Amino acid sequence: MAAIGAVFGIGATLITDALRWRRDKDQRWTEAKRSVYVRFLTSLAQAHSRMTVVAFREEPGASRQAAVHDAFLSDPQHSDAKSVLRELAIAAPDHVYRAAGAVYEQLRAARDLLALHAAGVESPEYQQAIRPFFANLDALQQLMREDLQPPTYRRSRAGRE
């Protein structure tokens, strides 16, 4: 009887340890994804801010184009959106990565508009280009938030919708 109890105790301990290891591993992975998600969203917002600051200077022609492109690419924290998008390709599920890629391309389109045209950030052309960016940025943020939820939360939520 004592041997059976010992085997049962060892088995329960091994199962508990395995479950704890799995939970810790899942938590570390979620934290890694959260970090990449936050860095990507931050890099997009900062790139947009830097570009609009440059656009307000209203520099002419080629110097405007160079300044806007530099503002888009030169992240002082060395985590420009393109680099973090590559990290997302590794860490995020496909649907989140595809949405992130689309948002990144929309910001690039806004960059190109600011770089090539003397249209300011208040111009109808720029507003037409940037509105979808912000709408899709909000949708991307929601996808990321849902992806970071525990699987049991996602399943219970899916049943209510």
Textual characterization of the structure:
The protein is mainly α. It has helices at residues 2-57, 61-73, 81-91, 94-116, 124-147, 151-160. It is elongated, with a radius of gyration of 23 Å. It starts with a helix and ends with a helix.
Structural class: mainly alpha
Number of helices: 6
Sketch the major β-sheet: none
Q: Give the overall pLDDT as a whole number.
A: 84
Rounded to the nearest angstrom, the distance between the terminal CA atoms is 52 Å
Helix content: over 70%
**Over the alpha carbons, how many angstroms does the gyration radius reach?**
23 Å
What order do the helices and strands follow?
Answer: HHHHHH
The backbone outline, from C-alpha atoms, is: elongated
Strand content: under 5%
Number of strands: 0
List the helices and strands and how they pair.
Elements (H helix, E strand, L loop, with lengths): L1 H56 L3 H13 L7 H11 L2 H23 L7 H24 L3 H10 L1
What characteristics describe this protein?
single chain, elongated, 161 residues, mainly alpha
Task: Describe the structure concisely for a colleague.
With 161 residues, the chain is mostly helical.
